[in-house]
Amino acid sequence: MYQQLRSLPLFQGASDTQMKALVEKVPFHFTTYAPGETILEAGQPCTHVCFIVSGSARLTFTTRGLQVTLHQTLHAPGVIAPDYLFGRTTCYPFTVTAYEQCGIMRLLKSDYVKILQSDKVFLFNILNYLSHNSQKFTIAAQSMMHASLTERLALMIGTLTQPQATNINLSFKQKDLCALLGAQRTTLIHTLDQLQAEGLITYTATSLTVLKPHDWSRMYKPTD
């Protein structure tokens, strides 16, 4: 059990002794969800750290006022957006459903704060996670103005997806995606044709699937 917990993001690097002490002092709550069952709703307050301990979950994010929706899949071992535990916005921006039978472990926020105070290993894990996510937005802000449409699309998807996400899909109305990216329809179609020819995506008139998620971030670089 300790080895399984140590494989989870935010607990990596902890010893069996450290994990044993946590299990003895902190209540962990486990729930199993059937495929398609809702785990979290968009707008729901983030009161717990939620770990995927088995199976996988599907995250669905919809932009406000535009019909553009991003889907991504997270597999065990994984953690669901712990950056929304703190800060100005503490509600989930997406809906989470079980993609296959999915086991979720929850840890109350106040208990997690105690863990962070107990050992630097856990503190550094969350700091590294938060820093990685915040730097994605910095890169996007630095690069968006002078980026090509390919880079803007990659920036948008890279910013909205979590580390280790797979099965990334975008569903949209073309006029809304054009408005979001600041592009003409002909330019959008030309760019999608190029990306498909390079084997990076497949697309239809209303959807896009990323074929090589790990290559996606290489499409853009922060400007100096």
Structural description of this entry:
The protein has 224 residues and is of the alpha+beta class. It folds into 2 domains: 2-130, Sandwich (Jelly Rolls), CATH 2.60.120; 134-219, Arc Repressor Mutant, subunit A, CATH 1.10.10.10. It has 8 helices and 11 strands. The protein has helices at 2-6, 16-25, 109-118, 120-143, 149-160, 174-181, 185-197, 213-216, and strands at 29-33, 38-40, 48-54, 56-62, 68-75, 78-79, 95-98, 102-108, 166-172, 201-203, 207-210. Strand 4 and strand 5 form a beta hairpin. The relative contact order is 0.15.
Q: Order of strands across the biggest sheet? A: 2-7-4-5-9-11-10
Give the biggest beta sheet.
Answer: 7 strands, antiparallel
Give the CA-based shape: elongated
Global mean pLDDT: 89
Secondary structural class: alpha+beta
Helix and strand topology:
Layout: H1 2-6, H2 16-25, E1 29-33, E2 38-40, E3 48-54, E4 56-62, E5 68-75, E6 78-79, E7 95-98, E8 102-108, H3 109-118, H4 120-143, H5 149-160, E9 166-172, H6 174-181, H7 185-197, E10 201-203, E11 207-210, H8 213-216
Antiparallel strand pairs: 1-8, 2-7, 3-6, 3-8, 4-5, 4-7, 5-9, 9-11, 10-11
Helix pairs in contact: 3-4, 4-5
Key features of this structure:
four-stranded antiparallel beta sheet; Arc Repressor Mutant, subunit A; seven-stranded antiparallel beta sheet; about 40% helix; about 220 residues; alpha+beta; single chain; Jelly Rolls; 2 domains
